[in-house]
Specification:
Blueprint (H helix, E strand, L loop, with lengths): L26 H7 L3 H7 L16 E4 L1 E3 L3 E8 L4 E8 L5 E4 L6 H4 L13 E10 L4 E13 L2 E13 L4 H4 L4 E4 L13 H7 L7 E5 L9 E4 L7 E9 L2 E2 L2 E5 L1 E4 L2 E4 L4 E5 L6 E3 L1 H10 L3 E2 L5 E3 L10 E5 L2 E5 L1 H4 E4 L2 E4 L1 E3 L10 E3 L1 H4 L2 E6 L4 E7 L1
Parallel strand pairs: 4-9, 5-8, 17-26, 18-25
Antiparallel strand pairs: 1-11, 2-3, 3-4, 3-7, 5-9, 6-7, 7-8, 10-11, 10-27, 12-28, 13-14, 14-17, 15-16, 15-21, 18-26, 19-20, 20-24, 21-22, 23-24, 27-28
Length: about 375
């Protein structure tokens, strides 16, 4: 989506106003092109206590496409002139990478590939990168270039150029690459994540981004960099401190049904992950949940429920920092090709604090999420 920034000198003030941006141009760039930058900086002197000129930073929305309620991805641009790529905006990882023209894997043959020789601003490195996901992996090398996200021009951004993408998952994926939004300490090869680079360059007014994911294959999904839009949720935001900084990790106090705790009786650790479709957990408690909701495993490994029973199934409640977050049966059961499938899935994800649960898209569709890097917390509210 292209954004248009209406420039009027009289409208420049100390307050931050949410304005849409034309793709690829920052407010600083517009001021430079119109001969207004020097006058603006004279009237808005630099504050040494701040990392940036506050009035030059704007919050910006990145539209996402909902692909069958399975994946959400948006378009970014890399290089000069810009080359376009669709990427998953993934809070469960921290690297940006896209396929390159040096990749010979089948997964690269049917996706957009970055050609560094066609970018005048590309800078190569001798550093390699290798990333393993729950499904799929990549190897390649790192380079620097200008990355445009949500109309924000993120210069000197390090990113991965894939040379191998083994397996079939990435071949069949409707997106080209991945843009990680987790903490830099889990980034492969020590690469600086995109949002950290935005913060360091003063491109966002606040060290937060927020996510709204639409339901039922609808449009309207968005990542908002630098701010929060209250039109995407009802009630108030409830803040949850992170229990560890790397993933967006929080403590779930319990998981219950009909007032009975059915999992996490002694609390458990979970990550809020936009890059995971389902809601996952360790095999034993997930098996218990499948039993309680009446799901049985078929020959494909999916847990099937009777579609006629959905209206009579119970809600599942996640208690987090003293607040209850309710998933209705229609939220945790998907209808696929005439079958009704449980969206709970067993997955081993070990960490220093035990096996992690993943609150994936199944959860995030129901709750608007604010990812607050400045205060190391997430905000949750009922999505509209």
């Amino acid at each position: 989506m292209k954004w248009l920034l209406l420039l009027a000198l009289a409208a420049l003030s100390e307050c931050l106003v949410k304005l849409p941006l034309r793709k690829g141009k920052s407010l600083r760039k517009h001021l430079e092109e119109n001969g207004l930058l020097q006058d603006f900086l004279k009237s808005h002197p630099y504050n040494p206590a701040s990392k940036y000129y506050p009035s030059l930073a704007q919050e910006a929305g990145q539209p996402l496409q909902n692909y069958m309620d399975i994946e959400y991805f948006g378009t970014i641009y890399i290089g000069t002139p810009p080359q376009s790529f669709t990427v998953i905006f993934d809070t469960g990882s921290a690297n940006l990478w896209v396929p390159s023209v040096y990749c010979s894997s089948p997964a690269c043959s049917n996706h957009q590939r970055f050609n560094p020789q066609q970018s005048s601003t590309f800078q190569s490195t001798s550093q390699s990168v290798s990333i393993q996901y729950g499904t799929g992996s990549m190897t390649g090398f790192l380079g620097y270039d200008t990355v445009q996200v949500a109309g924000i021009e993120d210069t000197n951004q390090i990113f991965g150029l894939s040379e191998t993408e083994p397996g079939t998952f990435l071949y069949s994926s409707p997106f080209d690459g991945i843009l990680g939004l987790a903490y830099p300490n889990i980034a492969s090869s020590g690469a600086t994540p995109v949002f950290d680079n935005m913060i360091n360059q003063g491109l966002v007014p606040q060290e937060v981004f927020s996510v709204y994911l639409s339901s039922d294959d609808q449009s309207g999904s968005v990542v908002i960099f630098g701010g929060v839009d209250s039109s995407y949720y009802t009630g108030s935001l409830n803040w949850v401190p992170l229990s560890a900084e790397g993933y967006w990790q929080i403590t779930v106090e319990s998981i219950s049904m009909n007032g009975q705790v059915i999992a996490c009786s002694q609390s458990c650790q979970a990550i809020v992950d936009t890059g995971t479709s389902r809601l996952t957990g360790p095999p034993t408690p997930i098996a218990d949940i499948q039993y309680y909701i009446g799901a049985s495993q078929d020959s494909n490994g999916d847990y099937i429920v009777n579609c006629n029973s959905i209206s009579n199934m119970a809600n599942i409640v996640f208690t987090i920092n003293g607040m209850d977050y309710t998933l209705t049966p229609s939220a945790y059961v998907s209808q696929v090709r005439g079958y009704c499938i449980s969206d709970f899935e067993a997955m081993n994800l070990p960490s220093n604090s035990g096996d992690l649960w993943i609150l994936g898209d199944v959860f995030i569709r129901e709750f608007f999420v604010v990812f607050d890097r400045g205060n190391n917390q997430v905000g949750l509210a009922v999505a509209v």
